[in-house]
Amino acid sequence: MAIKLEHVNYIYGADTELSVAALKDVCISIEDGQFIGLIGHTGSGKSTLVQHLNGLLKATDGAIYYNGKNIYDKDYNMKELRSKVGLVFQYPEHQLFEIDVFTDVCFGPKNLGLSREETEGRAREALELVGIGEEYYQQSPFDLSGGQKRRVAIAGVLAMKPDVLVLDEPTAGLDPKGRDEILGEISELREKTGMTIVLVSHSMEDVANYVNRIIVMNKGSVMYDDEPKKVFRHVKELEAVGLAAPSVTYIMHTLKEAGLAVETDATTLTEARDAILAACGCGKEK
Ligand SMILES: Nc1ncnc2c1ncn2[C@@H]1O[C@H](COP(=O)(O)OP(=O)(O)OP(=O)(O)O)[C@@H](O)[C@H]1O
């Protein structure tokens, strides 16, 4: 087991008049190799939660274990945790600052005190993983497109060789093409490396095609924690907290209400197509 949160509470400005209870009794376990979508309406506590995963925020109350060790023990190595749980913030491109792409991606491993050879090897590997070719290495990060900048920023975290990659709203501010590209690449990255990924998003649509577990946050608490199909069965409850199921879920429910004996559990277009063909007695398309 990689990360376990036990009864975690977090209050911003505790003991002040402006205190905000951002996390309330959060209990979750993140197992090795999982691909998790962390979903919630704005202000539901997603960013606060992910900053607990690598120790950037310390729980007001509760415990967090990384590989069985309590990260709040006084001799715990927080620096190592930060390199093992890589956090990619919202708009990570705002943190690019070096003169060229390659130097920027080298920054993290160099700071870990690794040799030049190891640092550069890791930077090359990370850039390859996010699909940034050598022709970009000497370019200023500021001359790249929005999607490319974001990939370079992700490479900077990957170069630390984390076991867990946490991406806070990686599609924020991208156009639909950029959004699909970055989600596709994150998914490919997971296939290539098998690493544990936590993908934070407002949108079920964004994550439905990729993740194998969804955690829904509402007002600082975990509302659902299950496989996508099961979460999307709660269409009305999700709507009540300002979220929507993916479009295919609505289409399947409409078809069922119209009298087609169709399974409504499809979460992707391919599953929806197969379910509709099965309901029509046509079997799977070859
Ligand atoms: N630095 C802060 N000081 C005080 N309150 C904060 C701070 N950061 C967040 N909050 C509050 O904590 C709660 C949870 O915020 P958080 O940013 O974790 O939610 P979120 O789900 O990530 O939202 P978004 O999708 O908008 O990023 C909200 O009520 C927010 O206003």
Summarize, please:
The protein is α/β, with parallel strands linked by helices.
Main attributes of the structure:
2 domains; 286 residues; Rossmann fold; 11 helices
Structure description:
- With 286 residues, the chain is of the alpha/beta class.
- It is built from 11 helices and 10 strands.
- The strands form 2 sheets. A 6-stranded mixed β-sheet has the order 6-7-8-3-9-10, sandwiched between helices.
- The protein is globular.
- It starts with a strand and ends in a 7-residue tail after the last helix.
- The mean pLDDT is 90.
- The site of adenosine-5'-triphosphate has 13 residues, from strand 2 and helix 1.
Taken in chain order, the helices and strands follow as: EEEHEEHEHHHEHEHEEHHHH
Q: Outline, from the CA principal axes? A: globular
Termini gap: 39 Å
Largest sheet: 6 strands, mixed
Strand content: 15-25%
Bound molecules: adenosine-5'-triphosphate
**Which residues sit in consecutive blocks of at least 5 with pLDDT less than 50?**
none
- CATH hierarchy: architecture of the largest domain: 3-Layer(aba) Sandwich
CATH fourth-tier homologous superfamily of the largest domain: P-loop containing nucleotide triphosphate hydrolases
The radius of gyration is: 21 Å
- CATH fold topology of the largest domain: Rossmann fold
